[in-house]
Amino acid sequence: MKIPGVPPAELAELNRAQDRLSFVYLERCVIHRDSNAITATDDKGVLHIPAATLGVLMLGPGTSVTQQAMMLLADNGATAVWVGEQGVRYYAHGRSLARSSRLIVAQAAAVSHRDRRLDVARAMYRMRFPDEDTHNLTMQQLRGKEGARVRRCYREHARRTGIVWTNRDYNPDDFTSGDPVNQALSAAHACLYGIVHAVIVAIGASPALGFVHTGHERSFVYDIADLYKAEITIPVAFDIAASESTDIGTDTRRAVRDRVNGGALLDRCVRDIRNLLLRPACSGPIDDEWADEETGDDTVRLWDADGPELVGGRNYGSELDF
């Protein structure tokens, strides 16, 4: 019996994570689907967005989304983020675009081994301090250097824009309680978290298994997002605050989108995650070994403690030694 409707796309037909739009923000509209496109309908008309090109769909105040639209996002490996006046409230994502579990297995192995976890954490800090040797620094020393770097970054952009800066002060339950620059920082970081979250799940890693951050469902999201804040969200936030915007949330999202689209962040994010998680185990270029993740077969194998993995889908009862 033929199932009615448009069939889900095959993995090979979907755009890679790094080739997608960073995010699209919608508010005060009804979101549905038309074939393989997401539709947004308001009093101005209907907007069609090909689902396979989306990295993140950010749903703002006044949006209503149908079950069919959410199914289409999930089938196409896109992430949905609910956004309110208090920032990001919920994440939902579809299937991974990777064909194997190799990346998440490498992530779990590294985060579960003290020395390997420390190596990845040091590598993350090394990306912030490319001219310094971080190999022998403790986590306490690395946190101290990172804290000093962020404070210096705030001061530099405050001087550049003429903003009076005191400190990072915000209430996650009350967006408007902060001053303009803190509101803009919260809005900018929320966009970055959504983008990074979408990339992580799309390439088959876990948002929860962090190396610096821990104990939260998005620990790895915060790890990766911290690599780009000084370059993307912090300068954007100070620019918006200096512009005396009357709609800080909307203007900040647009500014982050423009900065991200111009800097190829999605591709960079994918490469950084691969390098952090796979580099110790790779014998050749990361991109060459990653090709298997996107083009390999969908074979399910069975783990064996005493030998190589076995092919799944067959009965091994005749091999038992009773």
TrEMBL record:
Belongs to the CRISPR-associated endonuclease Cas1 family. GO terms for molecular function: DNA binding; DNA endonuclease activity; hydrolase activity; metal ion binding. Homodimer, forms a heterotetramer with a Cas2 homodimer. Mn(2+) binds at E146, H213, D226. It comes from the Bacteria. Gene3D superfamilies: CRISPR-associated endonuclease Cas1, C-terminal domain (1.20.120.920), CRISPR-associated endonuclease Cas1, N-terminal domain (3.100.10.20). CDD domains: Cas1_I-E. It comes from Micromonospora sagamiensis. CRISPR (clustered regularly interspaced short palindromic repeat), is an adaptive immune system that provides protection against mobile genetic elements (viruses, transposable elements and conjugative plasmids). CRISPR clusters contain spacers, sequences complementary to antecedent mobile elements, and target invading nucleic acids. CRISPR clusters are transcribed and processed into CRISPR RNA (crRNA). Acts as a dsDNA endonuclease. Involved in the integration of spacer DNA into the CRISPR cassette. The lineage of its organism: Bacteria, Bacillati, Actinomycetota, Actinomycetes, Micromonosporales. One of its GO terms (biological process) is defense response to virus. Coiled coil: none annotated. It holds the Pfam family Cas_Cas1. Its EC number is 3.1.-.-. The keyword Nuclease applies. Its cofactor is Mg(2+); Mn(2+). Keywords: Antiviral defense, DNA-binding, Endonuclease, Hydrolase, Magnesium, Manganese, Metal-binding, Nuclease. PANTHER family: CRISPR-ASSOCIATED ENDONUCLEASE CAS1, CRISPR-ASSOCIATED ENDONUCLEASE CAS1 1. InterPro entries: Cas1, Cas1_I-E, CRISPR-assoc_Cas1, CRISPR-assoc_Cas1_C, CRISPR-assoc_Cas1_ECOLI, CRISPR-assoc_Cas1_N. This is CRISPR-associated endonuclease Cas1.
